[in-house]
Write a structure and sequence with these properties.
The protein is α/β, with parallel strands linked by helices. The chain has nine helices and nine strands. The strands form two sheets. It has a six-stranded mixed β-sheet with strand order 1-6-5-2-3-4. Strands 7-8-9 form a three-stranded parallel β-sheet, with helices on both faces. Helix 7 runs parallel beside helix 8. The protein is globular. The two termini are 13 Å apart.
Length: 229
């Protein structure tokens, strides 16, 4: 897109991920061996689950079941386990509700969901409505990643991907005036966080027309790139 529309695109990590230490984890009073089914909603969750298990000297059994929000997260498990389809489950469209039929077929499973400290309870409540008991557990935290003092902060478009990113954006831009600046985002939660912050969402994905943020930005630039140059 930089070549196609003669624009500059820069990447800045608004957030960074920190793993809980063993003392912080133990304060939740959760024993990982009590659960034979782990739910992952991200690769971060996979990494921090296995890292903390190692720190806690918890041996993860070969019989463990894994329920993943997407195929890419499921495939990422191969970094830590020998992948077998009979113990790794995921839905076709990256939605947690797609796991429900698989979970109901295994009523003996005890579910532990790996989460960040920043999350909402919608997924846990969804499982509860279907009479599936899932224990949420924080394995990592999301913190703001500040701009360096001399780092550029003025752009024509800002693209955000998570509600945590919105919170970090507000911290880095405490007196932000949107004006004609464009804000693009991925995910309904991110869009709602932006609106709650009093900001205008100009590009929201996924949508029926644009399933990816890349496609949506490309379409926007096709129509508006001369104005932004």
């Amino acid at each position: 897109m930089q070549k196609k529309y003669a624009v500059n695109i820069e990447f800045h990590q608004f957030i960074r991920i920190e793993e809980l230490n063993t003392k912080e984890f133990r304060a939740q009073h959760i024993s990982i061996p009590d659960y034979n089914a782990i739910i992952f909603n991200s690769r971060h969750g996979v990494d921090h689950f296995f890292h903390l298990c190692e720190e806690l000297r918890v041996k993860v059994p070969d019989t463990q079941h894994y329920y993943c929000i997407s195929e890419s997260v499921a495939n990422y498990l191969q970094k830590y386990i020998q992948y077998r389809k009979r113990k790794v489950f995921f839905g076709p469209h990256n939605k947690m509700e797609e796991l429900l039929p698989m979970m109901k077929r295994r009523p003996a499973d005890k579910f532990l969901m790996v989460m960040s400290d920043i999350h909402n309870d919608d997924t846990i409540e969804m499982f509860a409505r279907h009479k599936i008991i899932v224990q949420p557990c924080v394995f990592y935290r999301t913190v703001a990643n500040d701009f360096a003092p001399k780092e550029k902060k003025d752009y024509d478009m800002y693209v955000l991907f998570t509600p945590a990113g919105v919170a970090a954006f507000q911290k880095n831009y405490p007196r932000f005036q949107q004006g004609e600046r464009i804000i693009a985002c991925f995910g309904a939660g991110t869009a709602q966080a932006l609106r709650d912050a009093g900001l205008r969402v100009d590009i929201e994905t996924p949508s029926p027309e644009y399933p990816s943020i890349t496609a949506a930005i490309d379409a926007f630039l096709k129509e508006n790139h001369k104005r932004l140059r």
